[in-house]
Specification:
Blueprint (H helix, E strand, L loop, with lengths): L5 E4 L3 H7 L2 H10 L1 E4 L8 H7 L5 E4 L8 H6 L5 E4 L10 H5 L3 E4 L1 H21 L1 H9 L4 H4 L12 E5 L3 H12 L3 E5 L5 H7 L2 E2 L2 H7 L2 E4 L13 H6 L5 E4 L8 H9 L4 E4 L19 E3 L8 H19 L18
Parallel strand pairs: 1-2, 1-3, 3-4, 4-5, 6-7, 6-9, 7-8, 9-10, 10-11, 11-12
Helix pairs in contact: 2-14, 6-9, 6-14
Length: about 325
């Protein structure tokens, strides 16, 4: 029997065991000759270069260093990079793809958690449950805590989804499941794909002006930088709800603050230009803003799916089957 292919696990032990459950580790070790990072710290590129020789696959994750020319020079046998998180752009330069190394990632495993949080935030803002909670805990009498306006149900609401990638499509599925009317802006979405998703495909301005609820699910790319600025925010109807569980990169934060300070719209924000969000950030002071600390993609199930997806991708690859979540060089411009 031939020797098992060798795989190097780069994530530190605590991160690896957060993502890979015991049964996933058993499956991994039954297929591959696994070498683990035994140090509770992230390696730098020089350290990765000193360790990568002789491995056919590498499991990477949050904290993995850049694959520099020095790393690639030592990775002569490397055939696959299996990234246990989402974005690979900062970690893997074009030279990785030019060298013929296959790349896969676990972004699809994180997307359902982001979509779940997005739906939660939409429904929270519609029903204003957080305001009742704040009033009661502040000592407001029962009748006073009931005074905020009666909330709205999600069913029948028109929701605009900006971006129809992994998280956008998961969000669309959940929204359609609660019988919301879904409009989508994504210049890369083909009409037949929109039809299959059961959504109405519209331009950005039409979506912003006609949808009382707008959720951002687009990736941070050159063309999406500040795609929502003062002009776009002004298109939102009075009382509109803006949700951002994607990246703050998409929105001009100063323009958003200016619009929110008018009280004309509401927002639920999970992402910010500066993280951790400073104690004195104006976003912490606005009553019409609900904020969370970049946790949309963090769930127990998502973390377990990340590890499982990578195990399954390794199984496919070494069985000679197509990767389900393969990333190619021509995808980099339009992905996170």
């Amino acid at each position: 029997m031939s020797a098992k292919p060798r795989v190097l696990v780069v994530p530190r032990p605590s991160l690896f065991h957060l993502l890979f459950q015991p049964e996933a580790i058993v499956a991994l070790e039954s297929l591959l000759d696994v070498t683990y990072n035994a140090e509770e710290r992230d390696w730098n590129s020089a350290e990765l270069a000193s360790r990568i020789a002789g491995y056919e696959a590498v499991i990477t994750g949050w904290g993995t260093p850049v694959f520099t020319n020095e790393v690639l020079a030592q990775a002569g046998q490397l055939r696959l990079v299996a990234h246990s998180a989402g974005s690979i752009k900062a970690m893997l330069p074009p030279a990785v793809f030019a060298q013929g190394i296959a790349v896969t990632h676990a972004a699809g495993a994180i997307a359902p958690a982001v979509a779940d949080m997005t739906l939660l935030l939409i429904m929270l803002m519609l029903r204003q449950a957080h305001k009742h909670d704040r009033l009661l805990k502040a000592g407001e009498p029962w009748s006073g805590a009931r005074s905020p306006e009666i909330g709205r149900e999600i069913t029948g609401q028109r929701v605009g989804v900006i971006g129809a990638g992994y998280t956008g499509r998961c969000t669309i599925k959940l929204l359609r499941g609660v019988e919301a009317e879904v409009w989508v802006y994504d210049p890369y979405l083909k009409p037949e794909q929109a039809q299959a998703l059961g959504v109405r495909q519209v331009g950005l301005d039409e979506l912003l002006s006609e949808c009382p609820i707008v959720t951002l699910q687009a990736p941070p790319t050159r063309e999406t930088h500040h795609m929502i600025g003062a002009r776009e925010l002004a298109l939102l109807c009075d009382g509109a709800i803006l949700i951002n569980t994607a990246r703050s990169w998409l929105v001009d934060q100063e323009a958003l603050l200016a619009e929110l300070r008018t009280g004309r719209i509401q927002a639920a924000l999970d992402v910010f230009d500066e993280e951790p969000l400073p104690i004195d950030s104006p976003f912490r002071q606005l009553d019409n803003v609900f904020i969370t600390p970049h946790i949309a993609g963090a769930s127990i199930q998502a973390r377990r799916r990340q590890g499982q997806v990578i195990v399954e991708e390794l199984q496919r690859f070494f069985a000679g089957e197509p990767l389900r979540y393969r990333v190619t060089a021509d995808m980099l411009e339009t992905m996170a």
